[in-house]
Amino acid sequence: MNAYLNLFLMMLISIAASLIVLRVLADPLVQVLTKICPDGESAVFWQSYTRIMLVITPLILVLLTDLFAQHGTALGNLRLSLLMALAGLLVGLHMIGARLGRFVAYPERPASPGAAK
After folding, report:
1. Which residues, other chains included, contact 45 with Cβ-Cβ below 8 Å and sequence gap of 6+?
2. What is the tens place of the pLDDT at every residue in 41-85?
3. Is the entire prediction scored with pTM above 0.90?
4. Domain residues of the chain, as ranges?
5. Which letter, b or e, does each residue of 71-91 get, where b requires 16 or more Cβ atoms within 10 Å of its Cβ?
6. Measured between alpha carbons, how far is 75 from 25 in angstroms, rounded to an integer?
7. Over the range 14-32, which residues count as b (16 or more CB within 10 Å of their CB) and which as e?
8. Which of 19, 20, 36, 37 could staple 42 via S-S, CB 3.0–4.6 A?
9. Residues 26, 31, 34, 35: what is their CA dihedral angle, to the nearest 10 degrees?
């Protein structure tokens, strides 16, 4: 397979995976950011930041993979690029979830009747 076509397909896989995840997260992300951000401008900034990070992180991993896997088969390289795109999404979502998770308020559990004081 042509090296340029292979690179294009690898990048396409990464961007498509990112866009699918972003589409699924779009509405819930806006709702969460609207609740935790002090104003609308902050929410818009963090939404844009999240979108950029969830596209760039998988793409960087896919492009790094291409540097090291140039001598594999075309199918193997595409499989590896999908794996790296998903790993990049996992890393990006973990970073965003860790940051947003700080703002989640957990309800207090009532003390059980037999608990010692």
Report:
1. none
2. 988 999 999 999 999 999 998 888 877 776 777 788 888 888 989
3. no
4. 3-100
5. eeeeeebbebbbebbbebbeb
6. 30
7. beebbeebeeebeeebeeb
8. 37
9. -150
